[in-house]
Write a structure and sequence with these properties.
By secondary structure, this protein is of the alpha/beta class. It folds into two domains: 418 residues, TIM Barrel (Alpha-Beta Barrel), CATH 3.20.20; 84 residues, Immunoglobulin-like (Sandwich), CATH 2.60.40. The chain has twelve helices and 18 strands. The longest helix has 20 residues.
């Protein structure tokens, strides 16, 4: 009924005519590892910084990002091979004990509505209909829409409804990760779900479903009982079984983010109905050996495969919690992430700006704010990290080499699944512990793609890769490498530069 009323409203207001033609296939897309996701902050996604000082000041002619002007960037995303957009929280946020001049996107003060921050001032449509217009524009371009579902609430909501929150032994509210602006909600237990908190979440999910959102990314699902998620997911799936729930939680997480906060294991979270989970690939900055990658892949397989239903994996190599890869290892790390995302059995998720080589540096960072709507008078931001706390400039960068490889790799990922539909992932042994190698081989099409990477940041390596039954009679098609690999009996030889990754293909050969 809610969805019918919404569609009637859309027709009355004259929204785009293609709205009803979208068929949600998001779960199928992710289960086949065909999703390419871009995480965005709509505050800055299409912001216009006229004076180019990095901060959006509307009284000086700058324009904040909103649902309507964000449509202008969708063709750009589509051309880059992005088919899914992950929108960081769009709920109203708190202003008390806040961080930054706008407040953290995750410090929610109302879980049941959409923030007016994203309303286009020149449109007469309601905020919900403006969001629906944006969603329809995404769907017209075959871009799926995911929305972040925050785990915690703001201090403002705690003051308004203290009964909704967990308390410690001293009867004080629980603060996660020492974040002064956040408080932990009391979702109850598996035997007694807190109906008030559950109702708040369900109302929001129902709104997203009515607006034709395709799924949610759930922040820290371990902070709520499995039964809470089972009930919520079951309710949503009954309305649309392709609506996905992605756990923003990785296998490396084993404890709660605050003393006194319950913790639910990833296995139990997945068993409650989640469709997918994050990998721990953001630890790539610490990897030194091939076994570091192979170990993580093995862990992913253990969690994704040992469930009643196969779970998909999100390849989150660099999220909003991580320092820009550009600051870690110039462009080399970014390029390795791009090609790992394209060839590993997972769904890549990038942070807006990654595709340009943005280092997320802001000249105003942590200086006194020219203007603020919170009780924080500083433009708070974490150095080298995506801005979640202010109205800042849109993500940018000058690394065209990264952009070009980003586009090429996304096209190649599509090529893999079109031409190797039954591709099998096989780790390969090398003579060098710092060099990894793996193959994607399809017995039906008789194609094999080889991937070789060097975790050594300083040295060139001469590599020998063991590949049973390969011989020099096969031809090599180069996808990404300077040195031409040499095939011999049961072996492939190649020379690989520091922090480099090579991709090549052999047709007429497959690994059984």
């Amino acid at each position: 009924m809610k969805k019918l009323l919404l569609i009637i409203c859309l027709l009355f207001y004259g929204s785009v005519s293609y709205a009803s033609s979208w068929v949600n296939d998001t779960k199928t897309l992710f289960q086949s590892n065909r999703a390419v996701v871009l995480t965005v902050n709509l505050r800055n996604f299409a912001a216009v910084d006229n004076d180019m000082n990095g901060i959006i000041q509307t009284d000086r002619g700058d324009i904040k990002g909103d649902f309507i002007n964000s449509i202008s960037r969708l063709d750009e995303l589509s051309k880059m091979g992005i088919n899914t957009i992950h929108i960081l929280p769009i709920n109203p946020v708190g202003i008390k004990h806040a961080y930054g001049s706008a407040g953290s996107l995750f410090a929610v003060k109302d879980f049941t509505s959409i923030s007016s921050d994203f309303k286009c001032p020149s449109s007469s449509l309601t905020i919900e209909l403006q969001f629906k217009t944006f969603i329809d524009a995404c769907h017209k371009r075959n871009i799926h829409v995911l929305v972040e579902l925050p785990a915690y609430a703001s201090y403002d909501l705690y003051l308004k409804k203290p009964g909704f929150f967990l308390k410690n032994s001293n009867r004080n509210s629980i603060i996660p990760n020492n974040s002064k602006d956040l408080r932990v909600l009391n979702a109850g237990t598996n035997f007694n779900i807190n109906s008030a908190v559950y109702s708040m979440y369900k109302k929001y999910i129902d709104l997203l479903l009515a607006l034709d959102v395709d799924g949610v990314v759930v922040q820290n699902p371990a902070s709520k009982p499995a039964k809470f998620w089972y009930n919520l997911i079951s309710s949503a799936k009954n309305q649309n079984n392709q609506f996905v729930f992605i756990a923003e939680m990785s296998p490396s997480e084993h404890k709660s983010v605050a003393k006194g906060l319950p913790f639910v294991s990833l296995h139990r979270v997945l068993n409650s109905g989640f469709d997918g989970f994050y990998s721990s690939f953001n630890s790539i900055q610490e990897w030194k050996f091939a076994d570091d990658l192979l170990k993580q892949l093995s862990i992913n397989h253990r969690y994704s495969g040992k469930q009643p239903e196969q779970k998909f994996v999100i390849g989150s190599f660099a999220s909003y919690n991580d320092i820009s890869p550009i600051l870690v290892n110039d462009t080399y790390l970014s390029k390795m992430m791009i090609w790992l995302n394209a060839t590993l059995p997972l769904n890549p998720m990038y942070l807006d700006g990654f595709q340009f080589g943005d280092d997320y540096s802001f000249p105003w960072a942590n200086l006194r704010a020219y203007d603020t709507r919170t009780d924080d008078d500083v433009y708070f931001v974490n150095r080298g990290k995506f801005d979640l706390y202010n109205f800042s400039r849109r993500p940018v960068g000058s690394h065209k080499d990264i952009t070009n490889e980003f586009i090429k790799a996304n096209k190649f990922k599509s090529y893999i699944y079109d031409n190797l539909p039954n591709g099998k992932f096989t780790p390969l042994k090398t003579n060098d512990k710092k060099v990894f190698a793996y193959a994607i081989s399809d017995l039906t099409t008789n194609y094999t793609i080889f991937v070789v990477g060097n975790f050594d940041l300083d040295n060139i390596h001469n590599v020998e890769i063991k590949v049973p039954k390969i011989t020099q009679k096969f031809a090599v098609d180069i996808i990404r490498t300077i040195a031409v690999p040499q095939l011999n009996r049961n072996k492939i030889y190649t020379v690989i530069a520091p922090a480099d990754i090579q991709i090549f293909m052999v047709k007429g050969f497959s690994i059984k």
